[in-house]
User: Fold this.
Amino acid sequence: MIPYVREIKFEYGKADQVSPLIRRVVANNPGPFTYLGTGTYIIGRGEVAVIDPGPDMDDHLEAILAALEPGEKITHILVTHHHSDHSPLAGPLKARTGASIYGCAVAEIPVDDSGVRMEAGADFGFSPDVSLCGGGQVLEGPGWTMEAIATPGHTSNHICFALKEENALFSGDHIMGWSTTVITPPDGDMTDYMDSLDKVKAREFSVLWPTHGPPITEVTPFIEAYIAHRRAREAQVLKAVTEGHGKIREMVPVLYADVDPRLHPAAARSVLGHMIDLVRRGLVTTDGTPGPDSEYRAV
Ligand SMILES: [Zn+2]
Assistant:
């Protein structure tokens, strides 16, 4: 249903000019949450911005610096969110270049005692020099203009960056071409996530550049399919509750029957994300705070 885009040509550590204003260099950190690796973007010419410097890997730091032309200077380091495949290299890159770090620090370190591995890991020490929490800030360099857009959902602090000159959006992990994104409560929030999808859709960007994988050029149909996929999953969850399957652990093997059972613990976190949203919207009820072991009832 989702028209995934997964075709991408690159060589690890080698920068490619992928649009008039955008260069990309991919880190050699492929994995189940990073696809073929973290795509770090370099924006502009002369005085440039770097988006999502990536994991703390020496060879990737050297590759970013080697991507610069003689005389070029990194002035801005922009970070979409605090996951370990996005932000940790910001500090080392700042130390080498003197550039300032822009992004939104996570407000409180979430307690997730589920023990379920859902992400590449988190970088809770991420602390930007300039806070972009809430979005709306405009950053500029010679020939480029970037607007921060707050897009909470995948994480509470997720920021997308809109490049005005190309009507392009750097979508981080909010919208990816190769996969759906992971929404893990408590830092991930399904209600916010759906609002953030609507927010991006309304802007009618010409192209999305996710941090992992190739660009998305059929933007509106892609986002519509992304939204429809979540609503379809939500309808399945609601149906299961209505039919008396009130426990997440009972409904996961049914809803995800076609999915490898080893992924069921992760699927259960995603169902919890839906459940919290459904309780908020008054469609489902439970006693106390909605949790992984709560008993849910249809309203
Ligand atoms: Zn992430």
In short: The domain at 16-217 is CATH 3.60.15.10 (Metallo-beta-lactamase; Chain A). The radius of gyration is 20 Å. Residues 81, 83, 119, 154, 173 surround zinc ion (CB under 6 Å).
